[in-house]
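Case study 2.
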Amino acid sequence: MRKLTHKEIVTRQEKQRQKSPIPLTIVLDNIRSLYNVGSIFRTGDGAGVEKIWLCGITGYPPQAQISKIALGAEERVPWEHAQDVESVVRNLKGQGYTIIFLEQMEEAVDYYDFKPNFPLCLVVGNEIEGISKQLLPLGDGAIEIEMMGIKNSLNVSVAFGIVAYHLKHSYNCL
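Prediction:
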């Protein structure tokens, strides 16, 4: 095996950038940590999401803590801030997006078994409270990540990364 050179990595990445984003919009519902927001920008950029909505108390660029983790992804991924998360989700649903919650719910299926319909809106909730209750009637489904250890959840940005790349793979297999 041989590691790629920096030049080879940059060349490969330039080819990837020419692809259109996948029809996946992310809604961040009251994410408290700017570091989590930065991480979601960076991962969203890598997975090729089309847009990120930063809703409620979720911080938005320019912020040093976001930029420190996002490393410029916050300048590449289209984003908007909106105070009212419910209006954003209703609007996306009206545009034909399937609304999926990343949340532990009675109706949730394991992310790996989830068969997405695109365009898709993935709603990621607050680190403590999860998805806002007023959004629940708007959802078309929920996905979760099975936990085997003593903790009952992953960090929100880690969970997003796992699911975002699964959705990217699912889209590429269509």
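Residues 29 and 125 are 5 Å apart (CA to CA).
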